[in-house]
Design goal:
It contains eight helices and eight strands, in the order βαβαβαβαβαβααβαβ. It is an alpha/beta fold. β1, α1 and β2 form a beta-alpha-beta unit.
C-alpha cells in the first residue's frame, strides 16, 4: 500500500513550521518533506527533534534554491555545488533524510553534462544517501536546466549509480502534456519519490486527474516509495484532506 508524505513547506501554512510536524502526524501522514531546510529558522537539530517527537519520517529535502532554483546544472558553479552538497549531506545526516533532491537551476546548453558530473560526484561522496532529480516544466520555471523526463532518464543512465533516481511530480508531468501513470510505467525503475497535486491550479490532488486510480495502480505495480502531497491548499490544509 502507498505511504503518504506531507510537504511542510506548502501544507499547514496556517501554522508555524514548528507545529506542522505534529499536524501532519495527527492528519495521518507517515512522513514529511521540507523543500529548503537552509531557509528554515529552526536548526537541523531542532527539525530532527520535531520530526521524532511527531513520529514522522523525514522523506526529502532539496539542495538550496538560491536565486536561480539551484546550481546543480550550472556550468562554472561546480566548486560551489561541491561545497553546497557537502553541507546538504550534513543536514540530511542529522535529519535522517531518505532523499536529497538536487536542484538543477536555471542553466544553459551544457546543463545535462554538468548535472551528470555533479550527480556522480554527490553519489560517490555519500554512497548510502539517495540523490534524486526532478524534471520541472518550462511553464513553471522558464530556463530550468532539467525540463523533460527524457532528459532526466538520459542523465541517470550516464550517472549509473544505485543511489541516483527520479522524482516524478504529477503537476509538472501534466504541465508537459504527460499522463503521470504512463510516465510512471515508462520510468518505474528510476522513480524513487512521487509528488502529487491537481492541474492546472496545483491544489489538492482531487481534480483534473483520476488520482484514486493512480494510487491503486502504484500499489498494483509494487511502488514502495512515498507519495507526497506537494500543493497549495485551497483552504486550511486539515479541512481539505478528503483526497488523502
Amino acid at each position: 500500500m502507498a505511504r503518504f508524505c506531507a510537504n511542510l513547506t506548502m501544507l499547514f501554512q496556517e501554522l508555524p513550521l514548528s507545529d506542522r510536524f505534529q499536524a501532519a502526524a495527527d492528519s495521518g501522514f507517515q512522513a514529511v518533506e521540507l523543500l529548503w531546510p537552509d531557509e528554515a529558522e529552526e536548526s537541523p537539530e531542532e527539525l530532527a527533534r520535531l520530526a521524532e517527537a511527531a513520529g514522522v519520517e523525514f522523506a526529502l529535502i532539496d539542495t538550496p534554491r538560491g536565486e536561480a532554483w539551484g546550481i546543480g546544472a550550472q556550468d562554472g558553479q561546480q566548486m560551489a555545488f561541491f561545497s553546497q552538497i557537502v553541507k546538504t549531506i550534513d543536514i540530511a545526516d542529522i535529519l535522517g533524510v531518505h532523499h536529497i533532491h538536487v536542484m538543477a537551476g536555471i542553466a544553459g546548453a551544457s546543463a545535462s553534462d554538468v548535472l551528470t558530473e555533479n550527480l556522480i560526484q554527490a553519489c560517490d561522496l555519500e554512497p548510502e544517501q539517495s540523490f534524486i532529480i526532478e524534471p520541472i516544466s518550462a511553464q513553471a520555471v522558464p530556463g530550468y536546466g532539467l525540463n523533460s523526463f527524457e532528459q532526466a532518464a538520459q542523465v541517470l543512465e550516464k550517472v549509473n549509480r544505485p543511489n541516483a533516481g527520479l522524482l516524478l511530480d504529477t503537476f509538472h508531468a501534466m504541465n508537459m502534456g504527460h499522463d503521470p501513470l504512463k510516465l510512471f510505467r515508462k520510468y518505474q525503475l528510476l522513480v524513487q519519490h512521487i509528488q502529487v497535486s491537481s492541474h492546472p491550479d496545483r491544489h489538492e490532488p482531487a481534480a483534473g486527474y483520476d488520482f484514486p486510480a493512480f494510487f491503486r495502480a502504484l500499489d498494483k505495480a509494487g511502488y514502495d516509495g512515498l507519495i507526497s502531497g506537494e500543493y497549495n491548499p485551497a483552504g486550511a490544509t486539515k479541512d481539505e484532506l478528503d483526497w488523502f
